[in-house]
Amino acid sequence: MYRVLALSSMTVVLLTAGVQAQAPASATAQVDEAPPLLAVPAGYKYDSRGRRDPFVNPIPKPTKPEADIPVIRPPGLKGVLVSEAKLMGVVTSKEPGMNKVVIQAPGNKTYFAARGDALFDAVVKEIRPDAVVFLLAPPKGQPQLNNREVVRKVNPAPGEN
Description:
The N and C termini lie far apart (120 Å). Among the domains are: 31 residues; 78 residues, SH3 type barrels. It is an alpha+beta fold. Strand 2 and strand 3 form a beta hairpin. It has a three-stranded antiparallel beta sheet with strand order 1-2-3, with no helix packed on it. The protein is built from one helix and six strands. 19% of the residues lie in helices and 21% in strands.
């Protein structure tokens, strides 16, 4: 009987020791597999029934514009913007086709332009004795919806040009 008691107590001790050895391993396995705090349970789907999702921001984030590719302008008069051009004078002739306009560009470069000559963003439409009419051209790749004309005077009053 002493043997039976000793054998049964040894069996109980070995079984409890085995269970205790396995318990910490399974506890660490559960801790490693725990989902993140704000995770959505697997298989969950929000049913809106015509309502907006309360967890989605109703104001969309502004999209970042694509990096503007610097425009390479051609040299000479074809690379001058109308806003950069300064009218220095008008050379008139008895023949209207011989009229020229004197344009000063950045860098103190001076150009003579006749009717029909192109700048970077416009074309000389008309040369008057005291002003020049430019026909603005749309940026490349965009349709020309309306003809916008800009009148630049040779000797403008303050705030006029």
